[in-house]
Amino acid sequence: MDDEILALKRNGTWTLVPRPQSHNVVGCRWIFKVKPSQDGSIERHKAHLVAQGFSQVPGLDFGNTFSPVVRPATVRLILSLAVASGWRLHQLDVNNAFLHGFLNKEVYME
User: Fold this and answer.
1) Is the pLDDT of residue 95 over 70?
2) How far is CA 1 from the centre of its chain?
């Protein structure tokens, strides 16, 4: 949890303000996962602070939403190309991934 909070602060994810009375305030919760190593033992414990988006009001808190994801067929195609071409494969685990975009509406979370 400390690592997650430090990463959020380092990236300037939020600004601490008094709770507004005239805006919808989105809740949050911690999500905990255990990351296993290849041999099945525990590699590390992961914690993520997430917003409870179900409490947002369409048109008030957000407009359109879009989340780009890769199709499994695309991953299989790239892996097949790598194997057929003899390419070396590497795996990367990103600790904190942030989109550095700007919101055009204010969103408050507690």
Assistant:
1) no
2) 14
**Exposed / middle / buried, residue 107 (Cβ in 10 Å: 0-12, 13-18, 19+):** middle
Q: Which amino acid is at 51?
A: A
Q: What angle do CA 72, 31, 37 make, to 5 degrees?
A: 60
Other residues' Cβ atoms within 10 Å of the Cβ of residue 57: 9
pLDDT in tens, 38-83: 898 998 888 989 888 887 878 777 777 777 788 999 999 999 999 9
Q: Which of 27, 43, 6 is nearest to 108 (CA)?
A: 27
Tokens 């917003």 belong to residue? 51
- Pairing type for strands 42-51 and 28-36 reads antiparallel
Residue 101, pLDDT score: 64
Letter for the amino acid at 28? C
